[in-house]
Automatic annotation (TrEMBL):
InterPro entries: Endo/exonu/phosph_ase_sf (IPR036691). Gene3D superfamilies: Endonuclease/exonuclease/phosphatase. This is Uncharacterized protein. PANTHER family: ENDO_EXONUCLEASE_PHOSPHATASE DOMAIN-CONTAINING PROTEIN, REVERSE TRANSCRIPTASE DOMAIN-CONTAINING PROTEIN. It comes from Acropora cervicornis (Staghorn coral). It comes from the Eukaryota.
Length: 346
């Protein structure tokens, strides 16, 4: 590396200032870091040679660059040349320095889709990702944002063909963002990302039905076919055929279950324990549900007291109207209910 001010040579890339003239050195693009997911390349094997006979890539390569804006013409040309040479599947970039004045078409790379997150209220910052068109990708909008501390997060969901999708996050912490952003901002989103696509299937075993034979199973399948046909046609004849098949299946299931239980009882009539097992299996037990109250017991007691105290009054009011309608005089005076709260009783 050469200093553009004094012409000093052999300067290391990590130097920010020239040791001879103490003037700042231009910052070169960072060396890309590649993360390979899949089989390793041999020393004499290029990325293009990793394609199989069908022309499909046998690995997914991810590159990350801190490029300080692809809108710089030189940086953009170097980036396009790097993408053409490496043929990486995903290229992530931090410090894009993009805003609404730069369109995606201006910094597009052939064969890649651009996903970007710009910092609009302040100069600098921003992250983006170039995803190869062979990969399906989408931005996880619920997780992607720039925090109040200017911590950048661009979360992507990437999938290759019918394989399981993977979640990729492009982050950038500028100098004015505290280190606590990793714990306060990134960690909650990371934990939430772990639950994405966590679809677990639980199989619930039903009651044992050993009496269901092949004939009954075939009738059930035939019943389902008739139902599907009716849903498609909405014809009255198809509905009648389905009902007949449904009733026939229900009768066959009932008869088969009764016969199975009868023969089981006959075979175990001398064993009380086995008989009770058969009874418990044939007769479903009642579910024991505990009552749940949303109010305190004192309020519930007062409401019950108010309800039952008005039973006589509610019955007397229609009686009074009937008496007046038919000119009947009551011999006894109707009692007036007195309500007593639980605090007055106890």
């Amino acid at each position: 590396m050469q200093c553009p001010h004094c012409g000093s040579l052999d300067l290391l890339p990590r130097f920010k200032f020239c040791p001879e003239c103490s003037l700042p050195l231009p910052r070169a693009p960072s060396i890309p870091k590649a993360v390979d997911v899949g089989p390793k390349l041999n020393e004499n094997q290029s990325a293009a040679e990793t394609k199989s006979a069908s022309g499909e890539a046998s690995e997914v390569e991810l590159l990350h660059l801190n490029i300080r804006s692809p809108k710089d013409r030189t940086h953009l040309l170097e980036l396009r040349e790097l993408a053409s040479e490496r043929k990486s599947s995903i290229i992530t970039i931090s410090e894009t320095w993009l805003n609404t004045s730069v369109t995606s078409a201006e910094i597009q790379i052939s064969g890649y889709k651009l996903r970007r997150l710009d910092r609009l209220h302040k100069r600098g910052g921003g992250v983006c990702a170039y995803i190869h068109r062979d990969l399906k990708s989408s931005v996880i909008k619920d997780l992607s944002s720039i925090s109040d501390q200017n911590f950048h997060q661009l979360w992507l969901n990437v999938q290759y063909k019918k394989l399981k999708s993977v979640v990729i996050c492009v982050t950038y912490r500028p100098d004015d963002s505290p280190l606590s952003s990793f714990e306060e901002v990134l960690k909650p989103n990371y934990i939430q990302a772990l639950t994405l696509n966590n679809r677990s299937s639980f199989w619930i075993r039903g009651r044992p039905c050993p009496f269901v034979n092949k004939e009954i199973k075939d009738m059930i399948k035939f019943r389902d076919i008739l139902l599907k046909k009716f849903v498609q046609t909405c014809d009255e004849t198809d509905w009648c055929n389905f009902k007949q098949s449904r009733d026939r299946v229900m009768k066959m299931l009932g008869d088969a279950g009764n016969n199975y239980t009868f023969h089981d009882v006959q075979a175990n009539k001398n064993s009380p324990r086995a008989l009770w097992k058969i009874i418990n299996r044939a007769v479903p037990s009642k579910e024991n549900q505990q009552s749940s109250y949303t109010k305190d017991l004192s309020t519930i007691a007062n409401e019950l007291n108010l309800f039952f105290s008005k039973i006589g009054q509610n019955a007397a009011e229609p009686s009074q109207s009937l008496m007046e309608k038919n000119n009947i005089t009551a011999r006894l005076r109707l009692a007036i209910p007195i309500q007593a709260l639980t605090l007055q009783v106890f």
